[in-house]
TrEMBL record, chain A:
It comes from Siccirubricoccus soli. Transmembrane segments: none annotated. This is Hydantoinase/oxoprolinase family protein. InterPro entries: ATPase_NBD, Hydant_A_N, Hydantoinase_A, Oxoprolinase-like. It comes from the Bacteria. Residues 5-178 form the Hydantoinase/oxoprolinase N-terminal domain. PANTHER family: 5-OXOPROLINASE RELATED, HYPOTHETICAL 5-OXOPROLINASE (EUROFUNG)-RELATED.
From TrEMBL, chain B:
PANTHER family: 5-OXOPROLINASE RELATED (PTHR11365), HYPOTHETICAL 5-OXOPROLINASE (EUROFUNG)-RELATED (PTHR11365:SF23). It comes from Siccirubricoccus soli. Residues 7-527 form the Hydantoinase B/oxoprolinase domain. It comes from the Bacteria. This is Hydantoinase B/oxoprolinase family protein.
């Protein structure tokens, strides 16, 4: 029997899933080990594979190592070489500050990642048409490389103006730096982010370079661990746009891993939806401090090209995941005028909500859940942690109920309603805000808090279907099993479509496709799907929209123009017959895994009595408590399903139907 | 029917919804506009209002523009009573002497209906690339009367029940240089306003118009109470701060004095500009809308960003703007270059308040949003106008050093990427750098200004340069040193060098260069 293992590292827990060929599976949550995240992977492997590892056919990994290295300032020491006159672009950024009305603020750019002394300039110049205006000062590049080496840098980023149109100078500079400093990590802006706007391109390039030594060491540790345990499968890693890469490809462009975990969860949601017969939907993964919302369309997560890490723009294609500061640990507080707010401050895992009794006195959303009977204090996290209902009630009374003249339950309801509205607002931003009607879409709740808030969010937005994963608490890990192997390559253009000969564009598409296929081959796969997309804008606009080009198109330039004019109306409500600019061309290829879906274990419905609980619009009701619901069975609200993996509220008017691979929760017609 | 309960959860939920709607409006403008000043610099703002003109929510964009929408909307609804508005109507205006700020900023308003009744207003303001007048970009530094500055649009009804008045558009098309860009960006404004209106109408349909209105009014009341509480926490007293502008742009050797007295009395705040210079010949006069924006910013910054951002915040504020002065000029004074004036006066208000709350207020920033416009024709004959906004540094504070080269107080625009500028106009950018050493010394030094250098590839072009702090340095605070003054000059192709004394409109030819360095900010505390 062949086993597939997916391991996803999160902030608090490292989640693992091991699936057999028949769809049966084992789940595992082990504590993350932030000092060296690979240790938690070792702990998980030890428990998943006590016998031998010879049967492991695939080993897939999602990790926050890349993002955390940047956010925590633990990336490698990096130097930057720029066009003469532009070393300070990284420091000045776009000149804006994040908070309008804060008088006191610090740097808004990643200046601490590459301080001034590690930003060096060389003479060279490429013009806005890609022509060389000033040849590269090759001796200057070598001198800059030596100067950076003298400062002990472990990686070098090279970002020249207009390199996305003509990468010749960057490539030559790479050769010189490599010859001067053999073995040093180098990243080129023309490869990392071949697109216009030098600040944004520099950020991605600098982060990529700074991550190379970190990811190289980290992936090396995982690989040796796999080798030591005799795991024969090669290491594959989740990248930000929701596909897997071989470890070598991940090392070559680590900036692609910044959204590894959230995109794995979105892939997991897409695959659960597919089992339920849906190609579209919304997933909401609610944890202790934050909630991640992703949109699934056409069976895959919707992508964006203007993502960020922290407040720094990182323009690599990523699953379009909106993270908001709302979760079980979000704190409720009153402003000077008695206005009630929840978050963005969070009690986190430590001290945690008041009911943890670890010293936290501020009331958190989880405290409200306890007061409202939604969470059984004796069975939280599968009974591994006892909660203190008294402490929860006390915190809410002192900080919210008493000052507002409300009862404790009334205050807890207000906290829940605000939280649910904040979550619904985020879902609305990802749907209504983009011209999609959420009422037609199923919602996939995940994470520890997904099942506690999903029905309320659905009711708020008029959604009538929830598709609940078999293992909602480890959706990212299960998503790894479902992700395709995927490579993508891009080329910058920034020219009007009517000025690009069709033959040139056809040749460019063919060349990009060949590069992509070669990358697939290096990971031992043949492409099963090929997608070619153009990022385009009207001449004069600064932001692009994506349009698909049919693979065999004989007139891609004309196709791009026609498609863009239509897409613009859909996106912004107005359009016109005007010249269109091709900004970039991108080819994506995929090969999909052949695995079966996770199958829920069979077993009888396990009743757990009943209790009084606040179930949203219905108010306080007596809810049946169940600990399991076997496939084929139905359950009508009011009820609460408490599994090891999470708590699902089923308010009156909703009905739960268990399938082998998921639960379907539907709102009954009134 | 039972009265709707104003429960705390519903109010907070509505507040979040309003913020999200304003942000959605902002995104539509930013992403679908074509002018570089909008799409790169984000010089546009969106707000929602009650039918009486009280602000409900604002997008997170430029405080300067957000403040300016308030009087514009107030003026539009005086001209066109909301009771007579119909679905599909659109109203607009830009006249600085009738609620506007300066001519390029066009305000646009769409009513929000619940059934037959107007329950709210959805409005945007956007800096249009060109509105006619003496120079491309409509910000001529040599203007001495409003008639030099472009086309004034009084409060107008642009569309009646969905049908745009073609006559208004024809008048505009005959008076501005880049009508195509204007029309496009106006569509972005309309699209944003309509989206905002549709979202609010959905909210009214869900909650009912009357309960929604009650909740909206409660939000405003809460913001007022919270602001009053924050003002009451400041010590009572009157503090005066005096400063000056380099010149008025026309009489280059004469500084323009500015004086503000800020009085905290109980829970209200008075900002009095008595003693400020009479209006001047050049275009640095500020229409009251811009001054209000500066005062709003200072008030919000000092009372705390946690307070919901709506019209309630401004009720405890009283402004005294002497008629015929720099901050309340009479027709037909020129007003296009008011940004620098608003920034200097915002710094002055904060400088006065620093006496009341020294820990919360940093040393003066560079008070610079240097605005540089290039306009001409490309080699193929097509016209272009590009506008750059270049910041200085932010001041040092009790908490740390200032930041180099960053938008401060009422401004929060983005710079133009060199790659975009070179793609849009026949210019080459030779340098984008921190102006090292320009920040004031101090325990926490001030942030440095920015150096930029441009070369003209295809002349002639018209340059309009609106600088500030070339002659008067930003002061330090509590023993900190002043920032270094700005400097700028033109290097002619033949080697000649012409200093720019703060403000200039001139013609540049192929091969000429503009070199500019903005001011650094003041340091905080005596240097160690």
């Amino acid at each position: 029997m062949t086993l597939e293992i997916g391991i996803d590292i999160g902030g608090t827990f490292t989640d693992a899933v091991c699936r057999a060929a028949d769809g049966s599976f084992r789940l595992l949550k082990v504590a993350s080990t932030p000092d060296d995240p690979s240790r938690a992977v070792g702990h998980a492997l030890e428990r998943l594979l006590p016998g031998g590892a010879a049967e492991v056919g695939r080993f897939l990994h999602g990790t926050t190592v890349a993002t955390n290295a940047i956010l925590e300032g633990k990336a490698a020491k990096v130097g930057l070489i720029t066009t003469a006159g532009f070393a300070d672009v990284l420091e000045l950024g776009r000149m804006t500050r994040a908070a309008n009305y804060d008088l006191i603020f610090g740097p808004q750019t990643p200046v601490e990642v590459v301080p001034a002394e590690r930003r060096l300039e060389v003479a060279e110049r490429i013009g806005p048409d890609g022509a060389v205006l000033l040849p590269l000062d090759e001796a200057g590049v070598a001198a800059a490389a030596r100067a950076l080496a003298g400062q002990g840098v472990q990686a070098v980023a090279i970002c020249f103006l207009f390199a996305f149109l003509n990468p010749a100078h960057e490539r030559r500079a790479q050769e010189i730096v490599a010859a001067t400093l053999p073995g040093i990590a180098i990243s080129l802006s023309s490869e990392v982010d071949p697109a216009i706007r030098e600040y944004e391109r520099t950020c991605a390039t600098v982060f990529d370079a700074a991550l190379k030594p970190v990811l190289d060491a980290y992936l090396g540790r995982i690989e040796s661990m796999l080798a030591a345990r005799g795991v024969p499968a090669p290491l594959q890693v989740m990248h930000s746009r929701g596909g897997l890469l071989g470890a070598a490809a991940a090392r070559a462009k680590p900036i692609r891993l910044t959204l590894s975990g959230p995109s794995a969860a979105a892939i997991g949601a897409a695959s659960v939806l597919r089992e339920a017969g849906c190609a579209e939907g919304i997933s909401i993964d609610i944890g202790g401090t934050s909630a991640d919302i992703a949109v699934i369309a056409g069976g895959a997560p919707v992508l964006r090209h203007d993502g960020s890490v922290g407040r720094t723009p990182v323009r690599v294609p990523t699953a379009d995941v909106l993270a908001i500061a709302a979760g079980g640990g979000s704190i409720a507080w009153l402003d000077a005028a008695g206005g009630l707010h929840v978050g963005p401050q969070s009690a986190g895992a430590d001290p945690g909500p008041a009911c943890y009794r670890r010293g936290g006195a501020a009331p958190a959303v989880l405290d409200a859940s306890v007061v409202l009977g939604l969470v059984d204090p004796a069975r939280f996290a599968g009974g591994t942690m006892k909660l203190d209902a008294e402490a929860a009630a006390r915190a809410i009374r002192d900080a919210v109920a008493a000052p507002l003249g409300l009862g404790v339950e009334e205050a807890a309801i207000a906290i829940h309603r605000i939280t649910n509205a904040a979550l619904a607002e985020a879902v609305r931003r990802m749907t209504v805000g983009r011209g999609t009607d959420p009422r037609e879409l199923p919602l996939v709740p995940a994470g520890g808090g997904g099942g506690l808030h999903a029905a309320a969010i659905a009711e708020e937005l008029g959604m009538i279907r929830l598709v609940v994963p078999v293992a909602p608490g480890v959706l990212a890990a299960t998503g790894l099993l479902e992700a395709p192997l995927e490579h993508d390559v891009a080329q910058g253009f920034f020219r009007a479509t009517e000025l690009i000969p069709e033959a040139e564009l056809r040749d460019a598409m063919a060349a990009l496709t060949a590069r992509c296929t070669a990358a697939m081959a290096r990971d031992g796969a043949r492409p099963e799907e090929t997608e070619i997309t153009a990022a385009a804008s009207f001449l004069g606009q600064g932001h692009t929209l994506d349009v698909a080009i049919p693979p065999g198109s004989a007139t891609p330039a004309a196709d791009i123009r026609a498609a863009f004019i239509a897409v613009h109306r859909d996106a912004y409500g107005h359009t016109r017959d005007a010249p269109v600019r091709l900004v970039a061309l991108r080819v994506v290829q995929r090969a999909r895994p052949r695995g079966v879906a996770l199958i829920a274990s069979q077993g009888a419905a396990a009743p757990g009595g009943e209790r009084r609980a606040w179930l949203g619009e219905a108010g306080f009701v007596t809810a049946r408590i169940l600990r399991a619901l076997p496939p084929g069975e139905r359950l009508a609200g009011p009820a609460i399903l408490e599994t090891i993996d999470g708590t699902l509220l089923v308010p009156p008017g909703w009905r739960l139907t268990a399938a082998a691979t998921h639960l379907l929760m539907e709102r009954l017609p009134a | 029917m039972t009265a709707h309960r104003l429960d705390p959860a519903s109010i907070e939920i509505i507040r979040r919804r309003l913020d999200a709607i304003a942000e959605e409006m902002q995104a539509i403008m930013l992403r679908s506009a074509v002018s570089p000043i909008v799409r790169e610099a984000n010089d546009a703002s969106a707000s929602l209002f009650l039918p009486d003109g009280t602000v409900l929510a604002q997008s997170n964009s430029l405080p300067l523009l957000l403040g300016c929408l308030v009087p514009a909307v107030g003026r539009l609804i005086r001209e066109f009573p909301v009771a007579a508005m119909r679905p599909g109507d659109i109203y607009l205006m830009n006249d600085p002497y009738d609620g506007g700020t300066h001519i390029p900023d066009v305000s646009l308003l769409v009513p929000v209906f619940a059934g037959e009744e107007v329950i709210a207003l959805s409005a945007t303001i956007l800096h249009h690339q060109d509105m006619g007048g003496l120079t491309p970009g409509s910000v001529p530094t040599s203007a001495t009367e409003i008639f030099h500055e472009g086309l004034r649009l009084p409060p107008l009804q642009l569309a009646r029940e969905g049908v745009v008045d073609a006559q208004i558009m024809r008048i505009i098309s005959r008076n501005i240089r880049t009508f195509d860009a204007f029309e496009w960006d106006l569509n972005a404004q309309i699209s944003a306003c309509r989206t905002g209106a549709a979202r609010l109408a959905e909210l009214a349909a869900k909650h009912g118009a009357a309960p929604l209105t009650a909740m909206l009014r409660e939000l405003v009341r809460q913001a007022e109470m919270a602001t009053r509480a924050a003002i009451a926490a400041l010590p009572d007293g009157t503090w005066v701060y005096e400063d000056q502008l380099d010149n008025d742009g026309v009489e280059l050797d004469r500084p323009v004095p500015l004086r503000v007295a800020v009085t905290v009395a109980g829970d209200s705040l008075t900002i009095d500009f008595t003693g400020t210079s009479p209006q001047v010949r050049g275009p640095v006069n500020a229409a009251p809308a811009g001054v209000m924006a500066g005062a709003f910013f200072a008030l919000r910054a000092v009372t705390g960003p946690d307070i919901p951002n709506n019209g309630g915040c401004f009720r405890p504020l009283r402004l005294v703007l002497p008629e015929g002065s720099l901050v309340n000029p009479r027709m037909p004074a020129a007003v296009n270059a008011r940004t620098a004036t608003v920034k200097v006066l915002t710094n002055a208000i904060l400088g006065a308040l620093a006496a009341a709350a020294p820990e919360r207020i940093p040393a003066p920033n560079a008070a610079v949003s240097c605005i540089v416009s290039f306009g001409g024709r490309r080699a193929d004959g097509s016209p272009y106008v590009v506008t750059e906004v270049v910041a200085g540094g932010s001041g040092g504070s009790a908490f740390g050093p200032g930041v180099n080269g960053i938008s401060t107080d009422v401004s929060n625009t983005m710079n133009q990427p060199a790659e975009m500028l070179e793609s849009d106009a026949p210019l080459r950018v030779h340098r984008v750098a921190v102006r090292r050493g320009s920040g004031g010394a101090g325990r926490h030094p001030g942030g440095c200004g920015i150096l930029r250098e441009y070369e003209v590839l295809h002349g002639p072009l018209t340059l309009s340069f609106r600088g500030e702090r070339h002659l008067t340095a930003p002061r330090g605070a509590l023993g900190g040193g002043p920032g270094r003054v700005a400097e700028a000059y033109i290097l002619r192709r033949d080697g000649g060098r012409e200093e720019i004394r703060s403000k200039l409109s001139t013609v540049l030819h192929t091969g000429d260069r503009l070199v500019m360095g903005t001011a650094g900010a003041g340091g905080w505390g005596a240097p160690p």
